[in-house]
Amino acid sequence: MYFLNLSLAQFLAVFGTISVTMVLLYLLARSRRKQVVATLRFWVAAEQPAVVQKRKRIQQPLSLLLQLVSVLLLLLAIAQLRLGTPLAAPRDHVLILDTSAWMSAVAGKRALIEEAREKARAYLKSVPASDRVMLVRADGLVTPATAFETDRPKLERAIASSEPGATALNLDQALAFARQEQALSSHRGGEIVYVGPGRIVAQNLATALPAPKNLRVLSIADTVEHCGLRKIAVRRAAADPDVWDVYASVRNYGLSPKALTLTLRFGGAPGGARRLFVPPGSEREVTFQYRTRAAGLLEADLLPHDAFPGDHHAALELPAQPSLSVTVYSDEPDPLRPTFTAIPRVRAVFRPSSEYRPDPGSGLVILDRFQPVRSPAANAIWIEPAPAASPVPVREKLDRVQFDRWCSDDALCAGLRTHDLRLASTYVFESAPDDIKIGQVQRGPVIVARAGKYKTVVFGFHPALSDLRYELASPLLFANIVRWMAPELFRRSAAAASNAGMVTTELDADIRAEEVRVLQQDGTPVPFTTRGRTLRFFSGTPGTVRVLAADRETAYSLTLPELWEAKWEIPAGVKRGVPALRRAAAVSKDLWQLLAILGAMGLLAEWLLYGRQDGSFRRMKPRMTVARSSMKKAS
Hints:
Blueprint: E1 2-3, H1 8-29, H2 61-78, E2 81-83, E3 91-98, E4 106-107, E5 110-111, H3 112-126, E6 132-138, E7 142-144, H4 152-160, H5 171-184, E8 188-196, E9 199-200, H6 202-206, E10 215-219, E11 227-236, E12 243-252, E13 258-266, E14 269-278, E15 283-291, E16 296-303, E17 313-318, E18 324-329, H7 337-341, E19 346-351, E20 364-368, E21 379-383, E22 394-406, E23 422-429, E24 436-441, E25 444-450, E26 456-459, H8 473-485, E27 492-499, E28 501-506, E29 516-520, E30 528-531, E31 534-539, E32 543-549, E33 552-560, E34 566-567, E35 575-576, E36 589-590, H9 592-634
Parallel strand pairs: 3-6, 3-8, 8-10, 10-35, 18-19, 18-20, 20-21, 21-26, 27-33
Antiparallel strand pairs: 1-2, 2-36, 4-5, 6-7, 9-34, 11-12, 11-27, 12-15, 13-14, 13-16, 16-17, 22-23, 22-24, 24-25, 25-26, 28-31, 29-32, 30-31, 32-33
Helix pairs in contact: 1-2, 2-9, 3-4
């Protein structure tokens, strides 16, 4: 016989406090008290006897005894009095099933996960029926599959539905979770059982925690020779933007050297092949170059295949080379031709003003000194427009004016410098508060940019016919305008095929932390951290994640499985293997329900026997006193 919720000292302290309080209440409640009556006419003054100090007595000892017994029964129910011994009480076990990506490897004729399920079922059969078991699936994350359960069919169904994930095993996290759950449980802690081969991430070796004393390991043999792709990265070559530089990393996880072949395909067509020799436990990198402007699927295959084919194939979606179509409507196109043909990835088409169409079907329209019938439905640069047709109102026209300054707080003016620039003739505009005043004279802005559905830049003078054409700021100004209107044209794109889990990458030195965004394929933000130039984010499932940093974008195709980096050595003294069938010889019996019912019945009986009688006695007592006084007066 023992208490489950309270110790004996705690129980005695609580019961003693309640008992003393009840006895004091009985002594005070039953003492003589003043009575308020309507008149003293029939009362006789009593003689004043000598004051004698009397010892207080409990007038209803049976009522007090019945209440004390009832409270004792209720406290026994709260303390959960049990028949039996503590060793025979049910226990809570945590069964950690390894569901890391490596568990899909084939050893012999079956996958490692199948052997793990079999050993997990065998352990369930060895546990007494009264013990509760929680099933936890462990890979890069810890996922409870069940609560603490005695329902064995439910646990077996959860084991059968467990499948390998996409990340490597974080065993320290799984063991810490198991200890926490057992500490929060109201039952006696049982065993923490790990089922798996013990292939872990390197982080567990650096921050290894002591193994729990109640740990049991059901090991799985996994002597598998394996080589796989670790990462593939592609980016545009610095010398030629039409060429993709491809970098691939291959790791040998086995114990013997391997000769491998890595092949590339783009759009289903062969793109190259490399032979490489990888020593055991090491990595090798290979590089390719592939020329294409088109978008398509780049695939890498590692040959020959082995017992774990999950990382023998990787695919990347390469974006097309961005370009911008520009339509220039001008009757004198020659001054503008050198400016737009010099900007990379800009395809300029020059047409006379008589062929103007409001819907040009291009990304940028340039209107050179003519008045269109209707404004173009596209981004546009207006050069010296007619005052009646200008998208920005013209305030005045000035001749032989000194250029004053460029704006300093916008990317449109980045790097613009001029010295002693004079304009032979220019319009001065009446700009709105939200307009960007790119260039100004003393009387107001002469180059204005306006955002909206279609972005617009208006020149009050012709940049190719003024002294600005002799300045280095002229081509830089048009490059800034094109970057503002079509930023994707200057965005540096890269792609990488990597494994799910923790992704680490290095940022360029000129990138600030506030310029970084990490997004899923649907645009949902992904939490990330930056420390110095190192960016880290976690993705527990395969998918595509985009990292945007200023004008750079990297698309991570997280389709490769994350594999182990080290083998966990089982500490000395840890129990191993499936235990023999354990039966609870004397299962403890819980009595709290019966004790609670008896305690409630005792309190109810006390109230029926003494509570109502005491109330009626108090109501009758003044009447009896008045009657006795009347009789004395009459005699």
